[in-house]
Amino acid sequence: MxxxxxxxxxxxxxxFLTFSQSVLxxxxxxxxxxxxxxxxxxxxxxxxxLKVNQKEFDQYRKEGLSIxxxxxxxxxxxxxxxxxxxxxxxxxxxxxxxxxxxxEENYFDLVYRLRExxxxxxxxxxxxx
Length: 129
Known about the structure:
With 129 residues, this protein is mainly alpha-helical. It has 6 helices and 2 strands, in the order αββααααα. It is elongated and about 40 Å long.
């Protein structure tokens, strides 16, 4: 099962290498000294993916739309949307692994958490009115 999941992640990351992704991930230590993975999104590539400009994106948010709803409205498939975010997180986590910030155990824990909902939560979240 893990082998299939890893193959999917690698495939999706290859598909989305064409997107210009500029993100800032932070290394934060909680009180127990564990690394907490956080990523801050650069919205320009997200606008490109959604085929909108910042003004259109902001208008959709004012209307209460989630990123997933915007994608659907713009004709972007759910698979492409999710694949973009999986690829983005995968690349960032690989950087952390290379730097030694992220252990193998923490890496697989993060992969599981992403799969279990962090990406879904982000793309389905609606703005506060």
